[in-house]
Each structure stands twice: as structure tokens, then as C-alpha cells.
Design brief:
Layout lengths: L4 E6 L4 E6 L29 H8 L19 H9 L16 H41 L2 H9 L4 H41 L13 H27 L3 H8 L1
Helix pairs in contact: 3-6, 4-7, 5-6
Amino acid sequence: SVGDYVTMYCLDSDSQVSLEIVGIFSGTEGMGNNALSISDLPANQGFVDYDTMFENFGRELDGYNEIDIYVEDPEGIHNVYNEIKNLSALKNKTLALSINTEDYNTISNPLEHLKEMVQTLLILIVCVSIIILTLLLMIWTRGRKREIGILLSIGESRRSIMTQFFAEVMMIGLFAFGASICLSNAISGIASEFLIAQVDSSVENLKLVISVQQVLPVYISSCVIILLSVVVASWSVLRLNPRDIFAKMS
């Protein structure tokens, strides 16, 4: 436990040293598949400060055997690789560079599959939405033939009538947009749990967040879908003159 002391034996100097445990690290689950011995497992290793190493273990720091460099954006890892490779201080040095994206791939592969699935579903949803909304609006518009005929006969323009229909449908759409915000937050929680179940068990703090920048294009495209549906549904009636509208009704 933290605060305990452990006595260690140094083979190089044939001496013992008592060291205090100041912290215990975690996150090594599933690592160490290439370990040749038990002591090579990350979970069985410990870290000491340089002063302790110099004073008690007779070691001197003569450079590093290896350096791990982590990048914030995995997409730019090759740029970082090339930049390090071209450093003048490393020219003619026996330095081997390698890129390890194993952990990134473990997490990114399920996300890529989910992205492709969402894109496919989005296309299907848009197409089905246009068809269903257009059919419903056509029924709704035909039920208002008398109103349309009266408005046209008193001089109302087809554009103003279509604008009125669009405004009426958008009022309903605003309620739908508000409900989608609450629904999307609930779905994002379920999606987070699904992704955690698909990736390595060491990933714990994975949470999907839906930002305004992501929601805004969806709402804009929804407004475009509503506009197209209103135009297609109402044009079958608005293209007629008032006399033809009343004649068909009678």
C-alpha cells in the first residue's frame, strides 16, 4: 500500500535499500504479451527516481534506450514520424523509428464501422422521410383544396400560400427538433456503452457527446427536406386555377 516500505536487494552492488511506496499505477491490463519473464510484465514493474538509482544501484544515466512519443491526433502520426526522422541531431545515428497504432486501432475500428452504419442509416432515413412526409402532406393539402381555391380567388399568390404551409409544418418541426435533443442524449449514452463493450476492457472513460456543430447541419437538412416535401405535395393543387379547383371538388 502507499506509505509502506519495501526492502530491495541490488545484485550489482550486493546491497539492500529500503524504499517507500509513494504511488501505485494501473492501466496495464492486457499488456505484456511479449514478456519473456514475469518481471517483464508491466504490472510487475516499478519506478524509482534518478537519485535513488544513482545512489543505491550504482547506475548512471547515459541517455535513453528508447523514447515513446504520443501524438494528440493519430491522423498526423506520419507527419510527426517524418519530422523526427529528419532532425539534424539524429542524422547518422543508430536510431530505429517505429509506429505503433495497436491501441488506436482497437478503439478506432469499431468507431469506423459505426460511422459507416450511421451514414447508411442516415441516407435511408432521409429518403424514407421525404417519401412519407410528402405523402402525408399531399393528403393534408388535398383536404384543404377549398381553402386554397378561396385564397387564390381573392388574389393570394401561390408563393405566399406555399410559405404559409411551410410555416405551419415548421411549427410542428420545431417541437420535433426539441424532442430530438432529449432523445439524442439518451441514445448517445447507449452508444457509449455499446462501444465500450466492443473495445478493450481498459477503456473506461469513453463518452459520446453531441455538439451544436453536429446537430445544426442535421436541423438545416431537415428544414430542406420539409421545404421540398411541401413544394412537391402542394404543387399538385397550387398549379390549378380556382375555377378548376372548385370544379373538381363539385
